[in-house]
Amino acid sequence: MSREIERQLEIIRRGVVEIIPEAELRLKLEGALKTGRPLRVKYGIDPTAPDIHLGHSVPIRKLRDFQELGHRVFFLVGDFTGRIGDPTGRSETRTLLDAETVERNLRSYREQVGRILDLNRIEFVHNADWLGKLTLSDVIKTAASFTVAQMLEREDFSRRYAGGNPISLQEFLYPLLQGYDSVALESDIEIGATEQKFNLLAGRTIQEIYGQEKQVVITMPILEGTDGVRKMSKSYGNYIPVNAPANEMFGKLMSIPDAVMERYFRCLTDRSEAEIGALLAGHPKEAKERLARDVVAFYHGEPAAAAAAAEFSRVFSQGAAPDDILTVRRPAGQATPLLELLVEAGLAPSRSEARRLIQQGGVRVNDERVADPGQTISGPGEFLIKAGKRRFLKLIKE
């Protein structure tokens, strides 16, 4: 039995930041093997946005490890807490979400999670089923286990308090409600990002109040976004959705800075430390291509990953236009201002950015660099427009 426990611990430890406490995890694994009762493993996500991105996938992939080890996985969708908003990492109070927005975001979660986990071995639960039934007495009992001073020890709260920024009472309640989720599910293990540590530990405290055995907390690293600086987030525009098309996913992965490749390998692939070290010791471009192929193959299959790699090489290494290029049509008898076209087609976010791009030599028409922001295109004919390294547009004037 000890050999099986060590095998499971080795798998569980891979890629995690902390196991709190590991001694309790060992005891839980021993108990599961003796009794044949799988451990109850919890992970929660609030439906504040419709997309699950690769940053979310880091703890979800750890759930996959527990699935393969034969344990019972609960994917908790915070349809109740999502209306409050998790204050973690926030510099201001979140806007409350209405029920319609939460429900709309919920619909796409199952399909996206199914790209990572075996849906036949996962239980989706919604915390509105029990949090919506709590009495005021229940809330007071739960809140009595924490002090205001403890709440203000949280870095995000203390920073806001020191800066004179408001903290709503609902935000103080959030970690208590997340902790009560663990009571409702009788969870043995909860998984979350490192920034969730306070909320995860709250579950241990509240389980003890309700006479339950305390859960073990496993924290996972926070994945930087494609900018390599801030955490991956839709708010920052540096995210890669798990349901992104293969070509788009491959291209975005190839855009990450070299400095975060190691973390991406560890968080998003099953490669061993030896394999990662060998890849990073070679040429950075080759390592990044291997990373992109690994990730795309996981979500789309190896044939799609190979095709995406070939398309990326054709477009970005050889300078060709992509197969699925955006095409717009304009009358041949009218001159088309290039600057306005760049903005209208989404190749530049604004006229000023389009002008800057042209002045810096970043725009080509039929492979000829444009120098004048006031240039127009007259027809008839087909014109291939390239803005920067990755944005293409075909203009047909007829």
Question: Brief description of this entry?
Answer:
Helices cover 46% and strands 15% of the residues. The chain folds into three domains: 2-222, HUPs (Rossmann fold), CATH 3.40.50; 244-317, Tyrosyl-Transfer RNA Synthetase (Orthogonal Bundle), CATH 1.10.240; 326-397, Roll (Structural Genomics Hypothetical 15.5 Kd Protein In mrcA-pckA Intergenic Region, Chain A), CATH 3.10.290. The chain has 398 residues and is an alpha/beta fold.
Structure explained in plain terms:
α13 runs parallel beside α15 and α17 packs across α18. β9 and β10 form a beta hairpin. The protein starts with a helix and ends with a strand. The chain is an alpha/beta fold. The relative contact order is 0.09. It folds into three domains: 2-222, HUPs (Rossmann fold), CATH 3.40.50.620; 244-317, Tyrosyl-Transfer RNA Synthetase; 326-397, RNA-binding S4 domain (Structural Genomics Hypothetical 15.5 Kd Protein In mrcA-pckA Intergenic Region, Chain A). The longest helix has 17 residues, at 169-185. The chain is 46% helix and 15% strand. The strands form three sheets. A six-stranded mixed sheet has the order 1-6-5-2-3-4, with helices on both faces. The chain contains 18 helices and 13 strands. It has helices spanning 2-13, 22-35, 54-68, 99-107, 109-113, 128-131, 136-143, 148-152, 155-162, 169-185, 197-209, 246-254, 261-268, 273-281, 284-300, 302-317, 338-344, 351-359; strands spanning 18-20, 40-45, 72-77, 122-126, 189-193, 216-220, 326-330, 336-337, 363-365, 368-369, 376-377, 381-387, 391-397.
